[in-house]
Backbone:
């Protein structure tokens, strides 16, 4: 009996320890994020006092300034265009390619598969400089021939680069799924007289819907949050910027000027869309992650 | 196969766009990283001058590059240890114990992973601000005297980067391990419990060995990803030149117009990351246990 009492009090201690650990980590994650939300409605002079003080009032002016004078509004529009365009391009290009690579046998298939597999190990941080130089040289060439280059500082080209660098992982994920489907689907469609394109577009692609949603989710987060490529390829001070690069600029300049309220309003504008999306689809996201393997 | 020409046309139309974009924006730039490391290129003209291994010779004598690689190694070691320690323990707690609000904790721990590194840098600039920052003011409150640590200055800057990177990574790896831990059959734990094995024993002799294959793969990927993430954190969080890691050194050379030199650094970091993950893969090799 005595032994039981000891082990049950140990059990209680263990439970307390576990909850303390869990709650501590949760607090360490929630507090800084929540703090930024509260700080975004503070006035600038409130930042000189105790950082744990609650806002004295709701100062929406920060958001208006961030949106207009710090140009976060136009940056957000750029980000929306780049992200949407890159995802659409990626799907249009990766879906048919993954389908063919997974389901048909032809000469060069092994080679192509090996290339895309190798692409999984190429990280954009390494190749961003050669891409930049290639586009810079391209612009010089275009300026000579046509009188103007359009490769750098162009949201459409940025979207093309995003889509291209996401190709290997997307093709890997999709062909993994396509390979599991039985060939009966196509045979039945061919017998009914459907061509290759029609079979692919109206029989196979609808089946891949769960994978497609996973791809859209991950790449939305990836493209929306990306800043290294964007910073390199859209480096003109007068040109268009995406939201994270605009925020980075704000981060570097506003702190000197002590316009904290605008900075935190900008931060909220960047993270709010991803947080809302996450809350809506968190289950799907964490499931898709384990299905898709590891990120590079 | 029915109509051979139309099948071929179909194949080409499906694959060509992907193959072309992959070649232009991934294959050729990757090749160029290696090629350009052997050349010197002016900042204003695209003319290139072959210098052989000259860039590498200068690189290995460059104190700034050496110290940036030391920082990279420091970050890899500490970020990996802390992240894996916390991720494994929290994953074990959330899968093995009956926890109220289990789902809530899982959702919250994953939040940092969906934020842009720039956003995290912004959040941590509020945490680390010397006067009125969250961290210093909390430390002041706890110790009763005014603490004014310069977190983003030497020598604390590396510690600050480690904290931010671990903060970012724990949730992602925890969710990954939760998935593999929940695949371990309950019956194994039950019989171990009957034999009197404590939680710690169960964790080290059942959980860890049974998910070892998963730990090993994630470790290899984590090392490669830490080299990249360290660059992104340094670029967004730290004042230029305060503390560099390998890839940020590379990027700074690009900003200075030393393209060939920058690519030589890229090649060295690439080879380094490749060798390191191969070594880790070899060292962690164990016989795989069947469940």
Residues:
């Amino acid at each position: 009996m005595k032994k039981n009492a000891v082990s049950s009090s140990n059990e209680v201690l263990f439970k307390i320890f576990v909850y303390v650990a869990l709650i501590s980590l949760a607090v360490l994650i929630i507090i800084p994020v929540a703090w930024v939300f509260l700080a975004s409605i503070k006035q600038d002079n409130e930042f000189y006092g105790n950082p744990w003080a609650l806002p004295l009032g709701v100062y929406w002016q920060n958001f208006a300034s961030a949106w207009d004078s710090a140009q976060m509004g136009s940056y957000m529009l750029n980000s929306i265009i780049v992200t949407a365009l890159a995802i659409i391009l990626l799907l249009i290009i990766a879906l048919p390619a993954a389908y063919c690579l997974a389901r048909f046998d032809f000469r060069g298939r092994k080679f192509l598969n090996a290339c895309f597999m190798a692409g999984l190990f190429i990280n954009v941080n390494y190749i961003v400089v050669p891409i930049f130089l290639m586009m810079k040289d391209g612009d010089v060439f275009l300026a000579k021939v046509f009188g103007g280059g359009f490769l750098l500082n162009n949201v459409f080209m940025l979207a093309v680069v995003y889509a291209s660098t996401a190709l290997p992982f997307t093709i890997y994920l999709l062909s993994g799924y396509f390979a599991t489907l039985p060939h009966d689907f196509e045979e039945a469609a061919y017998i009914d007289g459907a061509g290759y394109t029609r079979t692919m577009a109206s029989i196979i692609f609808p089946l891949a819907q769960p994978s497609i949603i996973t791809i859209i989710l991950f790449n939305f987060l990836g493209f929306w949050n990306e800043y290294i490529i964007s910073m390199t390829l859209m480096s003109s001070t007068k040109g268009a910027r995406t939201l994270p690069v605009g925020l980075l600029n704000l981060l570097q300049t506003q702190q000197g000027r002590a316009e904290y309220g605008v900075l935190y309003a900008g931060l909220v504008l960047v993270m709010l869309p991803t947080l809302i999306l996450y809350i809506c689809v968190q289950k799907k996201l964490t499931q898709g992650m384990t299905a898709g393997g590891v990120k590079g | 196969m029915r109509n051979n020409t139309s099948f071929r046309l179909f194949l080409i139309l499906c694959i060509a766009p992907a193959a072309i974009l992959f070649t232009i924006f991934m294959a050729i730039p990757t090749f160029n990283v290696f090629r350009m490391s052997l050349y010197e290129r002016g900042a204003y003209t695209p003319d290139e001058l072959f210098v052989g291994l000259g860039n590498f010779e200068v690189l290995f004598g460059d104190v700034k590059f050496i110290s940036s690689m030391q920082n990279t190694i420091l970050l890899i070691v500490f970020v990996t240890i802390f992240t894996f320690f916390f991720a494994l323990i929290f994953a074990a707690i959330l899968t093995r114990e009956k926890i109220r609000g289990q789902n809530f904790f899982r959702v919250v721990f994953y939040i940092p992973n969906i934020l842009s590194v720039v956003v995290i840098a912004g959040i941590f600039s509020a945490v680390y601000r010397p006067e009125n920052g969250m961290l210093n003011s909390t430390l002041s409150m706890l110790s009763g005297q005014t603490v004014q640590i310069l977190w983003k200055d030497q020598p604390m800057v590396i510690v600050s980067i480690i904290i931010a990177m671990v903060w970012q990574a724990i949730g992602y790896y925890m969710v990954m391990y939760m998935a593999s831990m929940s695949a371990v059959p309950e019956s194994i734990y039950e019989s171990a419990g009957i034999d009197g094995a404590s939680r710690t024993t169960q964790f080290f002799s059942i959980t860890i060995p049974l998910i070892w294959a998963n730990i090993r793969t994630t470790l290899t990927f984590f090392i490669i990803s830490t080299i990249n993430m360290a660059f992104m954190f340094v670029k967004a969080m730290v004042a230029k030149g305060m503390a560099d890691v390998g890839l940020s050194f590379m990027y700074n050379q690009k900003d200075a117009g030393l393209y060939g030199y920058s690519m030589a650094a890229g090649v060295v970091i690439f080879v380094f990351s490749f060798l390191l993950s191969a070594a880790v893969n070899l060292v962690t090799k164990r016989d795989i246990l069947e469940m």
In short: Chain B has a mean pLDDT of 90.
